[in-house]
Amino acid sequence: MKVFLIALAVLPLVVAAGPAPSQLQAPEVEGGYLKLGFDLLSSFKFIAPEYDPLANPKAPPPTGEEQIPAAVKGWSGKKAIVTGFMLPTKLENGSGKAVEFLLMANQMACCYGTVPNMNDWVIVKIPKGVPITQDVPIAFRGTFKVNPTFESGYMTGIYELDAEGPGQVAE
């Protein structure tokens, strides 16, 4: 009876954990593009490694790549579609179009929300710029990269998308 009660107590923890990162399901393919939703991109725990670029400016920053499952790394360099919420970070002079922005899993980072995990956003770059579209999910196509990125020595993301053109509002 004790074994049964212990098993019953542990069951919710096992079920809530979901599939192990090594057992990620393969993404759907649409027109030659991987459909990479945040259900896949955020399916593992990623903790940005601590690093102080001022303490030792010549030391390379830790990437945390060992935390990224092999299946996720395998998507790097492939054509992909990613849908999320736009958060502009760099605007084109004069036009006000976004040339770089975060595509986020949700809108919780805005205003009073929580700090998202590093794998809850994709840094999207599009040199031609696109009109800012906020508060609705929008999909972008392009070349997906799994590569820790840094700005001024600080990690800013682990995913990038070199977008091919304007996004499409998701339905």
Task: Walk me through what this model shows.
The protein is mainly beta. 14% of the residues lie in helices and 36% in strands. It is built from three helices and eight strands, in the order H-E-E-H-H-E-E-E-E-E-E. A five-stranded mixed barrel has the order 3-4-5-7-6. Strand 1 and strand 2 form a beta hairpin. The radius of gyration is 18 Å and the shape is globular. 23% of the residues are buried.
Q: What's the short version?
A:
It is built from 3 helices and 8 strands; from the N terminus they run H-E-E-H-H-E-E-E-E-E-E.
Defining traits:
171 residues; mainly beta; five-stranded mixed beta barrel; 3 helices; 8 strands
Quaternary structure type:
single chain
Q: What fraction, in percent, of the residue positions are helical?
A: 10-25%
Succession of helices and strands: HEEHHEEEEEE
Query: What is the overall shape?
Result: globular
Kindly, what is the distance between the CA atoms of the first and last residues, rounded to a whole number of angstroms? 51 Å
- Show unreliable segments: 1-21
Let me know the average pLDDT: 84
* Class by alpha and beta content: mainly beta
What is the overall number of helices?
Answer: 3
User: Compute the gyration radius: what is it?
Assistant: 18 Å
Strand content range: 35-45%
Q: Largest sheet, if any? A: 5 strands, mixed, barrel
Q: Number of DSSP strands? A: 8
| Major beta sheet, strand line-up | 3-4-5-7-6
